[in-house]
């Protein structure tokens, strides 16, 4: 199978040639053989923007050219980009080009296109090992909404239960699974699972469930520092390490193991998080 970058380039070419057609993400995943768990993260790592953001940008750049060189009305151009009204189109153009459509038409030019800022990996140093993990039984609670809020909700449900029932043992591991890309999924629909490696037969309250985190081969990396920098670590692993590793992604979600017993009482620079990338 072609490497990820080659297939992503085909996705971009497809977007460029189908801008006038609705984009159905499931069709892209099927057409170019991507896992739903990893496509959006890979795309953003390689191109510095999500697939929806790229399509929107391409449409707006095409619109700007039409404004400069074409004779269509602003309303016609707005409709061709999928905007239902002129106000929304004006707002999008202003955000992308820092000027109004009227300015572009009058000046017959546009400011320099915004360059998407790709992540710099110069300061990222990570030790990466390939490990085989066994399947892991966990208790978990799910939160939804903005990522930080979802995580707070999930841990806020799980931890009082496991502590009040004295289920935490020295060997208990805390794991986080973020299922959705906040640049793609509506904020209200983002899902985050707070997990603890606890096996118990006791009846569980509403909001606490059991599941299995599947085992297999994983790339394991240690991230040191604030949780806000985890996205950069993921980009490094997927963009810099994976292409040269000889491995491909498996169709399972990535997850994080939090090594600090109480992150709330740990300085951000002292936080330690193991990242697991499923590979084959």
Question: Would you mind describing this structure in some detail?
Answer:
With 280 residues, the protein is of the alpha+beta class. It has two domains: 4-107, Arc Repressor Mutant, subunit A (Orthogonal Bundle); 128-278, Regulatory factor, effector binding domain (Multidrug-efflux Transporter 1 Regulator Bmrr, Chain A, Alpha-Beta Barrel). The protein is 39% helix and 18% strand. The protein is built from nine helices and eight strands. The protein has an eight-stranded antiparallel beta sheet. α3 crosses α9 (230-245) and α4 (51-69) packs across α7.
Write the layout of secondary structure elements.
Blueprint: H1 4-17, H2 25-31, H3 39-47, H4 51-69, H5 74-80, H6 86-97, H7 101-107, E1 128-133, E2 136-144, H8 147-164, E3 174-178, E4 191-196, E5 209-213, E6 216-224, H9 230-245, E7 255-258, E8 272-278
Antiparallel strand pairs: 1-6, 2-4, 2-5, 3-4, 3-7, 6-8, 7-8
Helix pairs in contact: 3-9, 4-7
Widest β-sheet, arrangement of strands: 1-6-8-7-3-4-2-5
Helix content: 25-40%
Approximately what portion of the residues adopt beta-strand conformation? 15-25%
- CATH topology term of the largest domain: Multidrug-efflux Transporter 1 Regulator Bmrr, Chain A
- Please give the number of β-strands: 8
Q: How does the helix and strand content classify structurally?
A: alpha+beta
How far is it from the N-terminal to the C-terminal residue, by CA?
Answer: 13 Å
Tally the structural domains. Answer: 2
Uncertain residue ranges: 113-117
* CATH class annotation of the largest domain: Alpha Beta
Count of separate DSSP helical elements: 9
- What name goes with the CATH superfamily of the largest domain? Regulatory factor, effector binding domain
Mean pLDDT: 86
Order of helices and strands: HHHHHHHEEHEEEEHEE
Compute the CA-based radius of gyration: 22 Å
Note the overall shape. Answer: elongated
Give the biggest sheet. 8 strands, antiparallel
């Amino acid at each position: 199978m072609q490497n990820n970058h080659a297939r992503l380039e085909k996705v971009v070419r497809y977007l460029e040639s189908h801008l006038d057609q609705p984009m159905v993400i499931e069709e892209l995943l099927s057409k170019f053989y991507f896992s739903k768990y990893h496509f959006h993260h890979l795309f953003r790592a390689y191109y510095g923007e999500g697939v929806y953001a790229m399509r929107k940008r391409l449409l707006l750049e095409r619109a700007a050219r039409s404004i400069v060189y074409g004779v269509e009305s602003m309303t016609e151009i707005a409709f061709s980009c999928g905007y239902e009204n002129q106000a929304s189109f004006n707002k999008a153009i202003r955000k992308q080009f820092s000027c109004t459509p009227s300015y572009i038409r009058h000046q017959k030019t546009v400011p320099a296109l915004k360059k998407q800022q790709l992540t710099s990996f110069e300061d990222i140093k990570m030790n990466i090992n390939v490990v085989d993990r066994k399947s892991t039984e966990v208790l978990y609670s799910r939160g939804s909404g903005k990522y930080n809020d979802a995580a707070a909700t999930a841990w806020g449900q799980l931890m009082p239960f496991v502590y009040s029932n004295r289920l935490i043992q020295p060997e208990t591991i805390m794991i986080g699974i973020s299922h959705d890309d906040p640049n793609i999924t509506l904020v209200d629909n983002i899902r985050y699972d707070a997990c603890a490696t606890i096996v118990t037969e006791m009846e569980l309250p509403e909001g606490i469930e059991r599941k299995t985190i599947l085992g297999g081969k994983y790339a394991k990396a240690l991230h040191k520092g604030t949780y806000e920098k985890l996205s950069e670590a993921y980009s490094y692993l997927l963009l810099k390490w994976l292409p040269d590793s000889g491995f491909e992604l498996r169709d399972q979600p990535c997850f994080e193991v939090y090594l600090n017993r109480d992150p709330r009482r740990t300085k951000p620079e002292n936080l330690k998080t193991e990242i697991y990338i499923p590979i084959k």
